[in-house]
Design a protein that fits this description.
212 residues; alpha/beta; Rossmann fold; four-stranded mixed beta sheet; 9 strands; globular; disordered N terminus
């Protein structure tokens, strides 16, 4: 006989690591900020960097701002899920806060580039990789031009690099076309909800005691 319950019980023993990545111009930042607004129970991973903070940025909120020596010590200690050096500055995802949140049953969202996502999959095989892609090359080019921050030559280089990144999409668990933000966020939230239903994340004994 099913036992009565006064309310739902959180039976998840571990959370998921949700990695959202894609080429430059795919809309990762907009998608993630909208997703977090609609699913406030998600935990956003904070990256670390050796670059200086920009106006208004706060340590531990926007980034963990580290010295180069501190960052390299963390690399040597295996304390990053992924890291890279870009234009002379280090960027990386500290593994400690991510693992702590996941062990508390929280779902963690990580917004990074394609190369970083594949590093994470190697370090954390249970992570859920979502590849975000614009609907067409023409739309991607339009988005990059509208930024107004790069030359035509730089945009062409980015587009050529994007073609290489897209070939990595087959290594991901899901592919979402970002033709419209609301629709793309709806698909990603559905993916997260489905992943939460995997029995491997549940305390089956608690489930049986509560509902069976």
């Amino acid at each position: 006989m099913m036992r009565s319950s006064t309310g739902p019980v959180n039976m998840k023993t571990r959370g998921n690591l949700i990695v959202i990545s894609g080429p430059s111009g795919s809309g990762k930042g907009t998608i993630c900020s909208t997703l977090l607004a609609e699913m406030p129970d998600l935990h956003l991973s904070v990256s670390a960097t050796t670059r200086g903070p920009r106006n208004g940025e706060k340590d531990g909120v926007d980034y963990y701002f580290l010295t180069r020596v501190q960052f390299e010590q963390m690399i040597a200690g295996g304390r990053f899920l992924e890291w890279a050096e870009v234009y002379g500055c280090y960027y990386g995802t500290p593994r400690g806060p991510v693992e702590e949140a996941i062990n508390q049953g929280k779902d963690v969202v990580l917004e990074i580039d394609v190369q970083g996502a594949l590093q994470v999959k190697t370090m954390f095989p249970g992570s859920v990789l979502i590849f975000l892609i614009p609907p067409s090359r023409a739309e991607l080019e339009r988005r990059l031009k509208n930024r107004g921050t790069e030359s035509a030559e730089a945009i062409e280089q980015r587009l050529n690099w994007v073609e290489k990144e897209i070939k990595q999409a087959g290594k991901y668990d899901y592919l979402v076309v970002n033709d419209e933000v609301t629709a793309a966020v709806r698909k990603i939230s559905a993916i997260i909800t489905a992943e939460r239903c995997r029995p491997g994340l549940l305390d089956i004994d608690s489930f049986l005691q509560q509902y069976w």
